[in-house]
C-alpha cells in the first residue's frame, strides 16, 4: 500500500514567536500581509485552509487552485506585544506595501488602511488619556464615565 504524500505548499517556519508575516505568491508577486502570535501555527493554518479549499481570502485560494506557488515569509518578529499593537504594526506594513505599489491580497485599500491606522492611533491615545485621568481622579472603575461628576468638580475646584 502506497502512502499518499501531502502536497508541499511552502516551508513551515519552526518559529513560535509573534509578529508580521507575508504569504507571497511567487508567480504574480502579489502578497498577503498578516499578523500572528505564533508563526509556525499560522503557517500551518494557511496550508490547511489552502489544501481544504477553505482559505478565508478567496483571491489567495483562487490563485492557489490555479497552480500558483506561495511562500511564507517572516517580515518582523516581536516580543511580548499586545494584540492592539500587533494590529497597528500589521497596518503599517500593509500601508507601506500599498504605498510601494505592491499588489496585495489584503482587502483594505490604501485609503482604508490609512483610516484604520489613524483610528488605531487615536484609540491608543484615548486609552492612555483614560488611564491618566483615572489616576488623577483616583477612580478605581475602568470606565471613566462611572466616576462621579461631583468627584471631578471637587478635584478641579482649586482651579476656579
Word description of this protein:
There is one protein chain. This protein is α+β, with helices and mostly antiparallel strands and 160 residues long. Helices cover 46% and strands 14% of the residues. It is built from five helices and three strands. A three-stranded antiparallel sheet has the order 2-1-3, with helices on both faces. The longest helix has 28 residues, at 110-137. The model is unreliable at 1-6 (pLDDT under 50).
Based on helices, strands and strand pairing, what is the structural class? alpha+beta
User: Could you name the ranges where pLDDT drops below 50 across 5 or more consecutive residues?
Assistant: 1-6
Assembly form of the protein:
single chain
Cα Rg: 22 Å
List the helices and strands and how they pair.
Elements (H helix, E strand, L loop, with lengths): L17 E8 L5 E6 L2 H13 L6 H8 L4 E9 L4 H17 L10 H28 L11 H7 L5
Antiparallel strand pairs: 1-2, 1-3
Summary of the model, kept short:
The chain is of the alpha+beta class and 160 residues long. Helix content is 46%, strand content 14%.
Amino acid at each position: 500500500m502506497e502512502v499518499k504524500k501531502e502536497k508541499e505548499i511552502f516551508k513551515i517556519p519552526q518559529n513560535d514567536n509573534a509578529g508580521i508575516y507575508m504569504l507571497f505568491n511567487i508567480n504574480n508577486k502579489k502578497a498577503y500581509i498578516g499578523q500572528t502570535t505564533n508563526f509556525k501555527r499560522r503557517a500551518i493554518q494557511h496550508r490547511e485552509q489552502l489544501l481544504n479549499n477553505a482559505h478565508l481570502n478567496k483571491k489567495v485560494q483562487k490563485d492557489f487552485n490555479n497552480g500558483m506557488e506561495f511562500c511564507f515569509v517572516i517580515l518582523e518578529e516581536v516580543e511580548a506585544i499586545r494584540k492592539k499593537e500587533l494590529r497597528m504594526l500589521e497596518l503599517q506594513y500593509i500601508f507601506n506595501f500599498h504605498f510601494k505599489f505592491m499588489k496585495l491580497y489584503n482587502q483594505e485599500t490604501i485609503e482604508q488602511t490609512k483610516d484604520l491606522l489613524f483610528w488605531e492611533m487615536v484609540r491608543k491615545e484615548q486609552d492612555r488619556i483614560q488611564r491618566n485621568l483615572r489616576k488623577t481622579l483616583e477612580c478605581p472603575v475602568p470606565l471613566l464615565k462611572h466616576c462621579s461628576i461631583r468627584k471631578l468638580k471637587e478635584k478641579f475646584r482649586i482651579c476656579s
